[in-house]
Sequence to fold (1216 residues):
Amino acid sequence: MVENPHLSVKLGSLILKNPVMTASGTFGYGLEFEPYLDLGKLGAIVVKGLSLKPRLGNPTPRIAETPAGMLNSIGLQNVGIEAFLSEKLPLLSKFGTPVIANIFGETIEEYCAVARRSEESGAVAAVEANISCPNVSKGLDFAQNPQATLKITQALRKATSLPLIIKLSPNVTDIRVIARAAADGGADALSVMNTVLGMAVDIRTRKPRLATVTGGLSGPAIRPIALRALWQVRQAVNLPLIGIGGIMSAEDALEFLIVGASAIQVGTANFVDPQSSVKIVDGLRTYCQENNIADVNSVVGTLKSDPI
Amino acid sequence: MVENPHLSVKLGSLILKNPVMTASGTFGYGLEFEPYLDLGKLGAIVVKGLSLKPRLGNPTPRIAETPAGMLNSIGLQNVGIEAFLSEKLPLLSKFGTPVIANIFGETIEEYCAVARRSEESGAVAAVEANISCPNVSKGLDFAQNPQATLKITQALRKATSLPLIIKLSPNVTDIRVIARAAADGGADALSVMNTVLGMAVDIRTRKPRLATVTGGLSGPAIRPIALRALWQVRQAVNLPLIGIGGIMSAEDALEFLIVGASAIQVGTANFVDPQSSVKIVDGLRTYCQENNIADVNSVVGTLKSDPI
Amino acid sequence: MKGSVLYNLSLEGDKFLMGILAPELAKTSRAGQFVMLRVSESLDPLLRRPFSFYSLGKGTTAERLQPENHLQSHTQTVPGISRGIRTRSPDSVEFLYRVVGQGTRIMAHMEVGREVDLLGPLGKPFPLPTEPSQIFLIAGGIGIAPLLVLMEDLQQREPELFQRCKTTLFFGGRRAADIVGVEDFQSMDIPVHIATEDGSLGQKGLVTDLLTGRESSGEKNLPRLVYTCGPHAMMAAVARLCRQWRASGYASLECLMGCGFGACLGCVVKSPSSAAEEIPFTYRFVCKEGPTFPLEQVLW
Amino acid sequence: MKGSVLYNLSLEGDKFLMGILAPELAKTSRAGQFVMLRVSESLDPLLRRPFSFYSLGKGTTAERLQPENHLQSHTQTVPGISRGIRTRSPDSVEFLYRVVGQGTRIMAHMEVGREVDLLGPLGKPFPLPTEPSQIFLIAGGIGIAPLLVLMEDLQQREPELFQRCKTTLFFGGRRAADIVGVEDFQSMDIPVHIATEDGSLGQKGLVTDLLTGRESSGEKNLPRLVYTCGPHAMMAAVARLCRQWRASGYASLECLMGCGFGACLGCVVKSPSSAAEEIPFTYRFVCKEGPTFPLEQVLW
Ligand SMILES: Cc1cc2nc3c(=O)[nH]c(=O)nc-3n(C[C@H](O)[C@H](O)[C@H](O)COP(=O)(O)OP(=O)(O)OC[C@H]3O[C@@H](n4cnc5c(N)ncnc54)[C@H](O)[C@@H]3O)c2cc1C
Ligand SMILES: Cc1cc2nc3c(=O)[nH]c(=O)nc-3n(C[C@H](O)[C@H](O)[C@H](O)COP(=O)(O)OP(=O)(O)OC[C@H]3O[C@@H](n4cnc5c(N)ncnc54)[C@H](O)[C@@H]3O)c2cc1C
Ligand SMILES: Cc1cc2nc3c(=O)[nH]c(=O)nc-3n(C[C@H](O)[C@H](O)[C@H](O)COP(=O)(O)O)c2cc1C
Ligand SMILES: Cc1cc2nc3c(=O)[nH]c(=O)nc-3n(C[C@H](O)[C@H](O)[C@H](O)COP(=O)(O)O)c2cc1C
Ligand code: FES
Ligand code: FES
Fold:
């Protein structure tokens, strides 16, 4: 039995002490979880999506429960990059866990400005660009168009020397095409995936259960979709990948590692059990110990699939 | 209280005694359900996808359970249109419920041939073309490309005078574009939607849980995706729509009617409870009675959504 | 945090009273706070459910709420079987809940001894009165829940102040079956005025009908302090009354909650923005900044 | 069809024996058939689980399977609490099951009186012997389940034939804890030979090790009829032996099942195609054409 398996993983130049990150929008600014866990134990903390200016977000209802999942249309409410850097980041930095700024904007320029401010702070370890949020764009997203993905990735690549993670959307015909565009644009890693566009109706009132009608579906219900998206992207690009979607346990996380994710993010599970993320770190360690795995990286991309 | 609400709905020239159909591939050839329910009570029976020649289908494992859902890659195993017409259809016809042939092929010509044979039988009420099965095509499906959708719909429109239903796939960037193509091609109604492409991994063996690696996700997990797809298609075309995806109860069915489906199909629910479909018919009747609704059609498309 | 079901009693209509052994929670929680309860280990339902404390087990009530065994209850959805007997202890907490959906239906079936997974205490407590005052408690339906614990907490912590406050409960519902827990208040010598919409108990009408027109009958009939919980429209009406009465008031708000501790940003309520801000309103988080709010902090 | 749990006994290892009151099922089912059991009303887990009958409650066994209360059991996942006592009746059916995942874990927690939702009887029964024969029952682990009911059914329906058959059970497992139910066979005077891979009970090795080399010791040591259930590889080995022995044999197959009644087409097994067909093999549905198959109908 391996007593102290090596859990550290690399996403380009970004080194994490273990593969477990928190998913943007499901972990607040990190500090909300201090009562429940040791933030120092996490691989990385990805904070709520940040924009140049503070945003109020969408009207209520903003969430709805669905079978083994939930819909949200928070509308990217956030304190804005400046308040984050001055009020939240200093408190968050002291845990020794890399803080990743999840960023978004309405224009490419806004994205770049937020990325630049993140880098200037000196305390942000990487930038994850949410080019795929289904709740704010009226039309199609950057992440639904390869040209747009290429353009925004190139622009961000120029704007910052921080590790650049592009977060992809499942709401596309062929995610491989988008993944290649992000790779070509200079991304260091890809996050696969954001929420699936969904909807629910209250039959009593005949109104949508979300004020915005549609919203993002997350949670275990979408795990099979996320795994498939990851598998497709794995075959399309050579970048380190971050698996996201419905991960509730170390077993779930292992599915993503096996398919080819170097790291994973825990999202909706944080609501169900605020300790989920560290429990998954512990679970991965135990798995490695029990299966005599010296290095968790040796699990990554080991899917055995017979050609059919 | 309305004692005998009018439950009959029209899909173009096709008249159903109620809005509840069974989804292709989840109801066998109908006869498998004879021990469990009165097939005469259903709005329509959509049989397992039929091809020109019999098909063996995919290797096992063919199904896997996921949170509130299941994956399948049956590979469209079927007895072939001829055996269906000669062996199954005569037995099925006696229930007085319209039988809809779900058809597929590897080429447009095959599709058309199956449609023609269906019409020639004189006992098939309509044709539902599965242009979106994720388990057989190696590349992209017809349903993932508007031009291909247009072409196959036009060809089928020429090949048969039966009511023509085109079944759409959710695995697209913008389902509205595909829906419009099908409408332009001459479809009489659209089925929204087929399964979502998904995947699951057995962490013990590190193999995919399906022999084909990926497969179609169905069941309540995908209901929010199906409702959203229906809502998008509702805004894009003026055809009668059939809502499909994760419907387990009359309440679920009502969500689809409210969003704008004239009829619905019950799929995975048939496995969990073989009586699901008739229970949903009964549930819709009770709902109309209790809510003083004289005609179920008056529920269709009544979603109240404030513009935001 | 794990707790263990001590009793799960079927009350009037579709209401249940659940006692849970959870010493840590009983010790650290305050009136107005809530827990997020996980009703099952299954992924469906997925999210936790918020419940206010009805009692923190510290109070001692002489006359106990009478659980009735409603095997022939008028509610169809719930078998309505009482399990266990009500035995509060300093180590137990109580939730008064109404069966409205999948989660509460599962709760209604929980057996004695069943382990439950609780997250809490969460949210801001009700501020207790600081000086002897006339207090109105105004509840609608299941909104009664956080008001009992408030009075028990006050009685426990400041017995003298409790004695010197003049407290009255105004309690409304749609029908008699909505009115539960009255005995718990009466046993603390808190008078109870009831209104039901169908007139099946107390005065016919809304609970606010019991309250309008009080200004005319003189100052001494008006409260200094109001605590309210119930349907949104009722609390909005109470907020208007409090402005008329120049009374301070606190409401306990309900709202869909994804997490209960400030992480999902799902639970916002519109709040007046401060003059300094240029925005028409601001959002406050019901789970962290509430669920108890000064009435004027909410844009009703 | 609804049934009600009569007992749910924790046996060796992670095995449980569940008795269910289900008169209709007990009456109409045959050995080798199965039910699809819905373990919860939740949508997770969604699908029903297939279980073969272990007993149809008709048999009368003198010595009863001894349920042990494994509170200090070696299995971590299951509390291993026995509920109720084993009392079979003509109206009850029994399932012997192993806890392997979410569904069976939920089953292991079911209380006496709990209502369960069963679909069945499904599938094809084992054909009973038609003449006095030497019969080998060959089981691996939980594969023992459908073999007891087979013998009880025979004893019940054709007591004389049962007497005149010479039946032996060969039972293999990985360790002693995998060997359950032996007493139920012994009480029917069926001798039991055991093999475990770790040698903790019976002969060390595979169950098929107990069976090889029999040809040399003469005809009378060979069976005419074989019934087998267990891991695929074991049944494949048994199929080979049966060819050598020129014995007829039947296997009860396991396979992932979406529905259990021929609707999903998920449960196929490869079968030799008839000479007339031009395809290399054909698929048969385990749920409808099985789960019991003549050994030669399966491409092992
Ligand atoms: C701070 C707070 C305290 C509460 N205290 C009590 C109490 O003491 N007693 C009581 O009976 N109820 C209380 N509620 C309401 C209670 O949380 C809901 O009735 C319960 O969540 C319904 O769950 P369900 O699964 O039965 O209903 P479903 O309708 O099936 O639930 C679906 C989803 O909607 C949410 N939901 C449904 N109704 C409400 C609601 N009214 N408020 C918030 N979320 C809702 C559920 O949590 C779940 O996420 C409180 C709510 C809040 C926010
Ligand atoms: C005809 C038949 C008879 C059976 N009889 C028995 C019996 O008498 N006793 C017993 O202990 N087991 C029996 N099994 C196996 C039993 O069905 C599985 O162990 C059970 O479904 C596992 O469910 P789970 O939720 O605990 O496991 P999970 O692994 O969580 O289940 C996930 C999914 O896989 C399926 N699955 C997992 N293992 C099996 C398996 N071995 N066979 C079929 N499906 C599986 C489940 O049904 C479910 O759909 C039988 C299987 C078949 C096909
Ligand atoms: C309430 C909520 C808010 C979210 N906000 C963001 C966000 O601000 N930026 C972003 O990139 N993703 C956001 N997401 C998406 C998650 O980061 C994640 O990609 C998605 O939820 C799938 O993972 P899960 O199933 O584990 O939750 C949000 C998700 C939820 C549920
Ligand atoms: C086992 C299985 C087989 C299916 N086979 C077909 C098929 O042959 N043709 C088709 O158009 N759809 C097929 N489908 C898709 C269903 O008809 C339906 O569109 C989908 O399952 C979503 O509905 P549900 O969530 O109610 O199951 C199949 C689905 C399942 C689960
Ligand atoms: S409930 Fe999640 S932030 Fe309040
Ligand atoms: S299990 Fe569905 S066809 Fe056999």
Q: What stands out?
A: The first helix of chain D runs from residue 23 to 28.
